[in-house]
Amino acid sequence: VPELPEVETIRLGLTPVLMGKRLDEVRILDARLTRPEPPEEVEARLTGQRVETVLRRGKYLIFELSSGDHLLVHLRMTGSFRYGGTDLSADPYVRAVVRLDDGSDVAYRDVRRFGTWLVIEGDDLGDYLATRLGPEPFAATFTAASLAASLAGRRAPVKAVLLDQRTVAGIGNIYADEALWRARVAPERAGLTLDAAEVKALHRGVRAALRAGIDRQGATLRDYRDPSGASGTMQDEFRVYGRDGAPCPRCRTTITKTRIGGRGTWFCPACQRADNALGRRR
Ligand SMILES: [Zn+2]
After folding, report:
1. Known catalytic residue at 2
2. What DSSP letter does each residue of 80-143 carry, written as one string?
3. N or C: which end of the chain has fewer CB within 10 A?
4. Does 87 have pLDDT greater than 90?
5. Catalytic entry in 113, 154, 216, 263
6. Which of 120, 98, 96 shows the shortest CA–CA distance to 110?
7. Closest CA to 2 of 223, 197, 254
């Protein structure tokens, strides 16, 4: 499932391919991609437009078009882009193909079909994102104080608060577990029980976990690839995620798997002790 590091890697791969190019032909092969809008309408809005720039906000890719419109793409479970290299004409999972004015094709591929393409007028983009997303994790607006404000009064597990995109944009199941391990905070702790030092450690942990993912071009578990078809390598660097039964890289205690809010959750029961609740220091 692409999270911020995977989406950022895709953005970096697509930028040189798409910047300044005109979309000569847009074919949407799966009506589910654009619903409730009919695919023909989205095709018409995109065709003939130049891509001014490719941005990212949280897990959204944002293609800024010469018309002033924005194409907002959310990859959800298994969405990805492909450019160059392999022949995609026989690939049953290709849901859209864009022909550029240099004659090359960019394909959108999605096995599970949860991804979305949405065209938003320039003026509406800010509001659309503001109601859904909190600060970007590397922006100056994401601070230990803003994180503390998001955790205050929350009886929900701290992991669930991190997965809420309004706390900080771009974190999913993988980087939530990795950030909590780095911060030595148990994932099931109620948000309101974290003390100031723990919040500070978690703020640092969020940034460090995401930075590690970006530096390794994301994590390839099943479907994720960058636009050239290459895998990321973050999966080889996970501290806890998916590693139940393996030793904690910090203390060698066996990593445990549990479920929080229905999501598989991995943690070190020694480094991330749940009874540090209520502000008691280690
Ligand atoms: Zn440990």
Report:
1. yes
2. EEEESSS--TT-TTEEEEEEETTS-EEEEEESS---EEEEEEHHHHHHHHHTT----TTSTT--
3. C
4. no
5. 263
6. 96
7. 223
Residue pair 30/113 in contact (Cβ under 8 Å)? The answer is yes
Residue 89 has pLDDT above 80, yes or no: no
Q: Which helix (H) or strand (E) holds 72?
A: strand 69-74
Task: Specify whether 263 is catalytic.
Answer: yes
pLDDT tens digits, 120-171: 998 899 999 999 999 999 999 999 999 999 999 999 999 999 999 999 999 9
User: Do 209 and 240 touch, CB atoms closer than 8 A?
Assistant: no
Whole-prediction pTM:
0.94
Place of tokens 């980087």: 175
Confidence at 223, pLDDT banded by 50, 70, 90: confident
CA 268–ligand 1 middle distance (angstroms): 5
3-state secondary structure of 267: strand
